[in-house]
Amino acid sequence: MKSREQEYREIFMSEALEYYDAMSQHISELERNPQDQPSLNELFRLMHNLKSNSRAMGFTEIGEVAHHMETIFGLIRDKQRDFSGSLAKVLFSGVDTLGTMIRAIGEEKPLPDVTMLLDNLDKLVRGEEPELADDDLSDEDANRKLELSDLVYIQIKKLDHLLNLVGELIIDRDRILTLSKEIGNTALQNTAAHLFRITDELQYSVMDARLVNVGSLLNKFPRVVRDVATAEHKQVELTLSGQDIQIDRNILQIITDALLHLVRNAVAHGIETPDERVKAGKPAEGQLRLSAQTERDDVLIQVTDDGKGINVEQVRRKAVERGLVSKQVAKTLDEDAVRAFLFEPGFSMAKEVTEISGRGVGLDVVKLAIDSLGGQLRVDSKLGEGTTFTLVLPTSIAVKGALLFELDDRSYAIPLMHTDSVVSLMSEQLHIVGGMLMAGIQGENVPVVSLKHLLHGEGPMQPVVRAQVQGRHDIIIIDYNNRKLGLIVDRFLRQQDIVIKPMSKPLDTIELFGGVTLLGSGQVCLVLDVPALTRLFLARRP
């Protein structure tokens, strides 16, 4: 497997060779027409990009030549030099030298001595005549081999289509594997096992091709933070880390607006003004950190500020005012449950409307974006010290881990992203509080409900009585928005990766299901939508 450094080196080589080819084309056009402004502008841009990329990769010699060349093209562009005579010859020589240097790096050979070239470029800047070598072409310069890049740029929609085809292939693969076991033919089983390995490798190869660095998004935020801080009259220092963590490009696209909202909120709501910070014993300049890291199969993106934190009691009062919870129930909620109200539609703690905040577009928009990916949004805060929002994201949205279970002789799937644990409990391990089933799970009291009743019932759920909970129960503990809920099912089946397909009309209007998948048996399996299930339970609880 290639190291990250090798991948970066290959990308640099690919782009650098493209830059060299484009430079050769544009400088030839400039020779035919010294007034060709588009070619001149493009040469200046290419030199600037090559300089920046080379220095970022540590190839300082290439960066130095490109920097000197960029300066000359800048002078030509500003009408301070003419592209003619010895100046044109030195620039042609410089482009050729850059090509030689790029190829040398790709072949891991020593770089040529560029002292004379740099001296000549410096002389041209000063308006002096350069020292030209023999005008005849050297043996090396004399129909030079033409090279093509080892990398190919592919439109994301082509990769999307390819991944969809792989998903269809995986469904058929599982079907073939099941049939081979049913038939009991050894040769067919061996072929099916080989097909399984090949499709697995194909799936991960396609998924790998769609990965991009999180930095491609994070690196856009310094300007955002600067602009928002200026508008809010605040001083904020932004720190970025984990830019080389990789994630599916489509996931990064979907969370762009959500991350922008969180960063703007951190500056507008979280970090105090310089005067407020000084009074609180803090430095006048606030700290904001955007970071990415991996955790098992997930990617975690965190937005952390050292601001005033979330005042839980204010949120509690606001929730009561908004009618989201009764005053009596609000008093019993722990801090995590109270902070969950921040994700309710239209919920805002802004005291005034500005260009940044207070317009009723709250964290619910962020939550919906994360939910659509099968991810999670966590919030941790300490009053007076700061707040951290954590986006828990799958590496890919094409294939998801899921827990399969049975209910009324039908198979269902529930995404592992929202599955906390599975337990089998006897009736005496369940207790009834206020007409609701409760179970002690890992030191927590978790409400438990029959999934059958939740899916098929209407109106408020009837209070549970002891006679309804006899025997052993298989329970899936789901976790959404800092709320845990136990779902009683008929039987656990297994854990496996599934390809989720959207539901067709009119079934796509049923919120409780996030899609369908086809099992190896050929059976259509509904995939439960955990956020929708949690909301339904909260609306129907007694």
TrEMBL record:
Function: Involved in the transmission of sensory signals from the chemoreceptors to the flagellar motors. CheA is autophosphorylated; it can transfer its phosphate group to either CheB or CheY.
Domain CheW-like: 399-539
Descriptive protein name: Chemotaxis protein CheA
GO MF assignments: ATP binding; phosphorelay sensor kinase activity
SUPFAM superfamilies, sorted: ATPase domain of HSP90 chaperone/DNA topoisomerase II/histidine kinase, CheW-like, Histidine-containing phosphotransfer domain, HPT domain, Homodimeric domain of signal transducing histidine kinase
InterPro entries reported in the protein's UniProt record: Bact_Chemotaxis_CheA, CheA-like_dim, CheA-like_homodim_sf, CheW-like_dom_sf, CheW-lke_dom, HATPase_C_sf, HATPase_dom, His_kinase_dom
Organism name: Hymenobacter telluris
Single Gene Ontology BP annotation: chemotaxis
Single GO cellular component term: cytoplasm
Keywords assigned by UniProt, alphabetized: ATP-binding, Chemotaxis, Kinase, Nucleotide-binding, Phosphoprotein, Transferase, Two-component regulatory system
